[in-house]
Structure formats: structure tokens, C-alpha cells
Predict the structure.
Amino acid sequence: MDHLMPLRAIFLDAAGTLIRPAEPVGTVYARHALRRGVETNAEAMNAAFRTAWKTTPPPLHPPGRPPADDDRSWWQEVASKAFTIALGSTLEEAVMAPLFDSLYAHYARPEAWAVYEDVRDALEVLGQAHELLVLSNFDRRLRSILDGHDLSRHFSHIVISSEVGASKPDARMFEAALRACGADAGDCLHVGDDPHCDAGGAWLAGLHFFEVKRPENGLERLVEKVQNRSFSGLRSPLP
């Protein structure tokens, strides 16, 4: 049965929820590799990146000690592993280092990312009655990306894992967002697309959760639920 639920703030994941790579990751990796004399298949590279991403433990640092390199070394580990998987051998450091530099710089550019079609209208509507925050497993590059797409203005805070020193689903991420907006967990809703990082983390932290699963469950659906206070579709860990 639907029930009323006051919402003080709404947290939104970034990649996969607000933005997505403008091109398949494998295509970008293969193109940048070819410039360094390394030939690889884009489709194979895409699969290799997914495997590397899933098998590399997320960054985790001691409380109060975020990484000095903004988690750049973690991204380099993922990229290096992806090429090793795709090529069947490890690239020499003299090749991998400049190749990673170019990839890292590429994904810092707003043009490397596309905004989902349902995002802008949803943020305009949701921001009228709720404080909006970004809560993302990303690094400081996200700020310039969101600025470049004119999205930052919608958010009171942008909470990113490289500054917290932990990644969703770690409770420190959600605690940082709750501190930033000064709200209780039960008064907040987290929006994201990852069952483990977003859903699992939100439930453990005591937040309500909306799963982004386009096309059937996009941000238009979220707006409808929030506006009508019809929350049966917003899965909650609370009794």
C-alpha cells in the first residue's frame, strides 16, 4: 500500500544515473591504444574493461585520510588490468603510462560524457521542493564534468568517493552526504542504478532507495512518485 514519506533531500548517483560515457569504453580505449601503436579490438576491450572493473576492489582508505592522488592510481590499475586481459599480456610501463595519461585526461572532459535525456527536466522539478546532492563513486574530475554540462547548479553538495576515502556501499559515503545536508537517513532518498553500491549501501545506511533502470524506471518515473507521494515503488529498508 502506498504511504506518505517526507523527503528532506534526494541523493543521486552520477555515472549510470545522471551521465554515461558518450562512446563505448572499449572504443575509446582501442582508439587511444592505436595511437600508441597497440592494436586491440574495441568489443574485446569493452569486455575486458568490464571484467577489470568488477574484479578490482574499490578504493578504501583510513577514515580522515583520503588519497593524495585523488584515486588516480586505482583507475590506472583498472586500465592496466583491462589491457592485460584484452591483449593476453602486460603492456610495458613505457607504453602504458602515457596511454593511461591520455585516457585519464579524456574522461575528464565533459564531451566524453552524455547526459541522459530524462535528467534535466527531473532535476528542475525535484529541486523545487527538495535539496539535491550528488553521491558518486568518482573523483574530482566529476566536478568539471557536471559544470561542463550545466548540472552543478542543481546540487547543494557533490560528495565523491575520492574525497571521502571510501566508495559506496561503504557507510562513510552516505554518512558524508547526511552530514552535508543535515538530514536524518529516514528523511532522505538515494537514487542510483547499481544494486550493490547504490541499493545495498542505501539500505544499510537506512535511506529509502529508487532504482534507476531505464527505460521502464527512469527519472520521469521518480518525479511522478515523488510528486504524488506514491512511494510503493520506492523500496525502503524502514519498517
Remarks:
- Residues 72-87 form the longest helix (16 residues).
- DSSP finds ten helices and seven strands in the chain.
